[in-house]
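REQUEST FORM: STRUCTURE PREDICTION
Request ID: SP-0412
Submitted by: Lab K.M.
Chain count: 1
Length (residues): 219
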Amino acid sequence: MGEGTGGGRGVRVSRFLLLAAWAAVVVFALLHVPGEDALRSRVEEAGAAGPAVYLVVYVVAVFALVPRPALNALAGLVFGFPLGLAPALAGGVCAALAQFAVARHVAGDAVARRLPPGIRARLDALVGGHAFVAVLQLRLLPVVPYQAVNYGLGLTRMGVWPFAAGTLAGAVPATAALVLVGSGGADLGVPVTVAGVLLTVVIGAAWWLRARSAARTGG
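STATUS: Completed
RESULT:
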């Protein structure tokens, strides 16, 4: 009994320390993340290490609530297109995974208390059996804010790999468009965005038809 109690206390202490560390990172990010021009200078000054510096800056900046479109456009501004696409996509996926992990392993209770009643069960039902497609749709058609998706899905039974894969695949159209805009190709960014919307419609129609078919057959 004593060992079990001690083990449970140890887990609670560990989670508290992780939560405190996460809160400290968020506060630091909010207070110290520089503006867009300063971020650009830091990445450019890093030389060959620029993509790695950009990746770290991206994740920290997302916690500081810096808009992702600005960070994606920054990749185009610094690295050009298509070279800026890979670090921009990697930054988006890493930031999403960081917030997903925070909700699942660190601040799950705090996040859950802020969600409307029953939303966790609805998210579980949404991702059950087709997690990748669910994430893909949420990314392609961002009706739900990016960070809300990250934290919310961290509370579900969803696996890490479907979440990461759906985030990566769904981020391609919008991220490519913004990197193009950042690199000076604003005219090309519009067709890419339109293609992403059309892809969303196709996936949504296919999912709806599949669900309707399953409901008719009782499957």
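NOTES: The mean pLDDT is 75.
Reviewed by: T.R.
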